[in-house]
Every structure is written in structure tokens, then in C-alpha cells.
TrEMBL record:
SUPFAM superfamilies referenced in this protein's UniProt entry, alphabetically: S-adenosyl-L-methionine-dependent methyltransferases
Entry keyword set: Cytoplasm, Methyltransferase, S-adenosyl-L-methionine, Transferase
GO molecular function: protein-L-isoaspartate (D-aspartate) O-methyltransferase activity
Coiled-coil boundaries: none
Listed name of the protein: Protein-L-isoaspartate O-methyltransferase
Family: Belongs to the methyltransferase superfamily. L-isoaspartyl/D-aspartyl protein methyltransferase family.
UniProt KW Cytoplasm keyword: yes
Compartments (UniProt record): Cytoplasm
Organism: Brachybacterium massiliense
Length: 114
């Protein structure tokens, strides 16, 4: 997902998973430009760091989240499970396209501040 000069930003909504995720990252990717931070309540992704070339969502959404699509760079790609179907969403020439790739189950995407 990331080249040798790339940067990875992970956003975790579950507070109790932050430390284990950071420890795993430090162990498997020492010296890489990567960070895992707590999600802001009511905010999807990391809009303050957008746009992104790649977005990988590891939670199932009810619909394709416009807030995450808005964070895609030109020629950016997002992979996200929507209604138990894996979608590849691409922004190219200002247009958004998607393709569907198989059925999967994920924990639900938390889209509100609760």
C-alpha cells in the first residue's frame, strides 16, 4: 500500500486498541513514517491530513461514506466493505467510480460520536 517514501496514518476508534496497534506497528515497521492515532469523535478518517492516495477501511459501512470519498486524492483508491461487499472506489478526473469484489464480513463502521 505504501512505497519507501510514503507515510501511513492509522485512525483507531477503539481506545483500548491504540497501544497494541502502536506496539505492533513499532515491531513490524521500525523506522517507517507511520502513526496510529485516536479518531476524533464524529469524524471519519483524517481530513486534516487529506488528500490520500490510498484509503483502506477495515470496518463495514452501510453506505459509501462521502466524508472518506472526499479525502481521496486525484487517482486515489479506497477499498471499503459496504453492505458486506468489498468496493474499490477510485477518483479520476474529478469522477468517482466503483467496482465490487466479493462478499465479506467486518465489524460495523462507527459513523457517529457514540
Amino acid at each position: 500500500l505504501v512505497g519507501p517514501d510514503g507515510e501511513v496514518i492509522g485512525v483507531e476508534r477503539q481506545e483500548h486498541l491504540l497501544d497494541p496497534a502502536r506496539a505492533a506497528l513499532a515491531e513490524t515497521a521500525p523506522g517507517r513514517r507511520a502513526v496510529i492515532r485516536a479518531a476524533h469523535p464524529g469524524v471519519l478518517g483524517a481530513p486534516e491530513d487529506a488528500p490520500f492516495d490510498r484509503i483502506l477501511v477495515s470496518a463495514g459501512a452501510r453506505r459509501r461514506p462521502p466524508a472518506l470519498v472526499a479525502q481521496l486524492a486525484e487517482d486515489g483508491v479506497m477499498v471499503i466493505p459496504v453492505q458486506e461487499r468489498m468496493q474499490r472506489v477510485t477518483r479520476r478526473g474529478g469522477e468517482i467510480t466503483q467496482s465490487t469484489h466479493g462478499a465479506y464480513r467486518f465489524v460495523p463502521l462507527i459513523e457517529d460520536s457514540s
